[in-house]
Amino acid sequence: MMEANTSRMINLNGSNYHVWKGKMEDLLYVKDYYLPVFTTDKPESKTDAEWNILHRQVCGYIRQWVDDNVLNHISGETHARSLWNKLEQLYARKTGNNKLFLIKQMMSLKYHDGTPVTDHLNSFQGIINQLQGMGIKFEDEIQGLWLLGTLPDSWETFRTSLSNSAPDGIITMELAKGSVLNEEMRRKSQGSSSHSDVLVTESRGRSQSRGPGNKGKHRSKSKGKFDDFECYHCGRKGHTIRFCRQLKKEKKKSDYNNQKNHKKDEGGNGNAEVNTATDEFLICSDLDMVNITHDDSSWVVDSGATCHVTSQRDFYSSYTPGNFGNVRMGNNGLSKIAGIGDICLKFDTGIELVLHNVKHVPDMRLNLISAGLLDDDGYSNNFGNGIWKLTRGSLIVARGKRCSKLYMTHPKIFKDRVNAVVNTDMTDLWHKRLGHMSEKGMSLLLKRNVLPGVHDIHLKKCSHCLAGKQNRVSFKSHPPSRKESILDLVHSDVCGPMKTRTLGGCSYFVTFIDDHSRKVWVYTLKSKDQVFEVFKQFHASVERQTGKKLKCIRTDNGGEYIGPFDAYCRDHGIRHQKSPPKTPQLNGLAERMNRTLMERVRCLLSHAGLPNSFWGEALNTAVHVINLTPCVPLSFDVPDRVWSGKDVSYRHLRVFGCKAFVHIPKDERSKLDVKSKPCVFLGYGQDEFGYRLYDPVHKKLIRSRDVVFVEDQTLKDAEKKDTVPQHNDDVTDLDPVPPQHVESPLDNDVQNDEQHDTDAPEQPEVDEEFHSEIPVPDVPPFVPLRRSTRDRHPSTRFSANEYVLLTDGGEPECYAEAMEDEHKREWVEAMQDEMNSLHEKNTFELVKLPKGKRALKNKWVYKVKTEEHTSQPRYKARLVVKGFSQRKGIDFDEIFSPVVKMGSIRVVLGLAASLDLEVEQMDVKTAFLHGDLDKEIYMEQPEGFQVKGKEGYVCRLQKSLYGLKQAPRQWYKKFESVMGEQNYRKTTSDHCVFFQRFGDDDFIILLLYVDDMLIVGKNAERITQLN
Fold first, then answer.
1. What is the pLDDT of residue 883?
2. pLDDT tens per residue across span 167-192
3. What is the CATH code for 483-728+743-748?
4. Which part of the chain has CATH 3.30.420.10?
5. 515 catalytic, yes or no?
6. Looking at residues 547-572, what average pLDDT do you find?
7. Which pLDDT score, from 0 to 100, does residue 803 have?
8. Catalytic one among 288, 296, 302, 749?
9. Cβ atoms 377, 261 nearer than 8 A
């Protein structure tokens, strides 16, 4: 038996199973232990006792090569094959999750410059082997191409060369691996490392690559490679900034002055030093040395730096000296941090950027801006085409250019900026963004580091807070308590009526407050009798979000909370606690919340200068902010975080009522139109990244994410022509003057009020400058108009009664009108035909309505159709479900249904014309009735067709009906499945184009637009068969 070398054997730790398995299999064969593991029958040469002992020996041997966390699972196994199978089940199960995890790991695998290529190849091959062990195998060429796809952009030339030189254009896995290894060796041998050149700030000795500016005897008259380059520093041609002699002279002089200043600072610095932990900050992420010449005002934008760094002490607007640890250079050298502070930069865009916690490192050669920290602050770094852009939304904050392999920018330094003023301004800004939150609440958020730019909280007296919040001295109250779990108890109360209605016509609002999380929901109402419907919406929503049941609701025993409300609570097992009459203190949480909301609303409207008719929008914004506010009963936790269990963000908050510029999409403007329009910020949409805005010019609501805010300006600063129309519901004019414009109430996002937008007629804009340049012709002398002497008579017109004789009776709007119509018999026959069609297709069956379900209403739609080939009208009746009352997630999910693209229609018709193909058009009668439903939906019996003896029954829909939200989608899915059974395939570019090939020149193409079809083919008989 050959000797086994176990020095290279590894222990199984759970994550390296496939590598361990291969090594262990080899080891078992070498040790002659393979029979108990890989065979089931006992050899004839061994007795039962010997065979059992061998099993125990193999189990013991395998257990020597596993970690303790794995050993716990197999410690009791005495049969070698069972032990082996158990490990296979634990760490190599062919489940969908394991396969998906490996696929994602393979898709995210990328080679990083500077790391050994062999490590990357091992990782890649390891994933391939694990996928093969689970039954997923890739062709050899796909593996090779995938490996090349994991290489970074710096290998693009290598990829192109290998693709062009591959035999027959096929890149196998072996060819790809060999070529990658050879390329790494070539780069190392030429002294050009495979990893990218990134700035390193520690350099000793002279550079190994001296440019033409370093040689004094360079006499060549031939054209050099820098002759067409222009220096960014001195502006002269023939060299780059790296070899600029003028810049080097200035650098030497600056270094001499810095040394003198540094000695002076060390000797007489009167600031108190702060000692901190000796942390190490990584400035640069690579090992290459790049020497560039620069001036002191240059800043390098470094994606590898973890902090902002400068060596210039006089750049700081606020500075704290002390021992703040070290920074680690790219060559693993350490440099001491002498202090930290803030630096204000002003770029050529006119925008100021304050860098916070900038490290002062005197040994640094360049100033660094950390791209990663800018990302954390909400900015976006864009690199490409030799240009660096720093943006925030659609606003360009800063620009820079590429010098050598680095991106540099040259901002101005604001040395006299006072940090206290900046902090005060930022504190005041966040106070407005947070809906005028209290100083205590903002202090709690500051401790959690969620308020960028704020260092301490000290609020000045806010006139808007006093106008909205000032109260009498409070009485003593009991300490706050709360339920143990979400939805154990919900408090509710109605507030109103308000003297001024919202833009949606609402006068009340109702609040719901979860006692455990203190999360608040608010719905605006036109009348109190809407409370019951709103509560049913709230009940379904919160139970679906949390998966928990609402157990108890506490109200003030108002009239809106009794009757149907009580019955609904009993049917759903909800306990309804009602406070005794005239004791609102027992429903104190909801009462206090209503007071808090109205205080916030008054503050927001006062600061924004908006009319009272916007109180609904201000209310929604106040609720959004309150759910992000630390709460005393939650031990200063945030309601949204307690409710969802997820961290919350404050970066999306903006000042209510401020000016905002909304981007206009391309399809809504011409090439010369402006790209944005001024609006008023009114709150937040369904998700925190969408904003609700009001367009004062067109008087309509806009929802957009592409917004630039001017938070220090409100509507009061806008021009008079942009003033939002005021509402006055308190005064009723008994003889009103015809209005100059129609006011457009906005819909409220929470209560889903109907929106009645009527745009005021726009006046044409006149370019005065343009018209002033047009030459004005000479004005002819005034000639008086000649008045006609003809007798005038009023024109003869038909009277209203005469016009009535020319009109028909119209079509009935409902069943009752149809029964009173002169064509009653025709309408009854049409409805009977529709019911017969529904019964033939087994569209529904009569059942009793299950408990907890509700039946949708329906209506008859009547239409008189006149055919071209006959003068007799055709009377048609259709049963339509009132789908607007469906609830998402309960009665329907997806509703999207594709239709054929117009481009596809043009292409197919052009093909038919050029190839002389047969073209037929057809439509499907009652197409939507063919769709199968995947939801349990009930409908009331159609009016006029109730089954005798079963008047209390409802129709359980088995097929889709017109009016259902998902009816078009279900019809398309049915049509798609039928076409698949007929061996028709749909194109990838248009899912409503189906085709089938029967031969070289024989095929059929079918286009579907809802229930209309266009069929094109060579053989007319096949088209007829398809019909």
1. 87
2. 877 888 888 888 888 888 887 776 54
3. 3.30.420.10
4. 483-728+743-748
5. no
6. 90
7. 52
8. 302
9. no
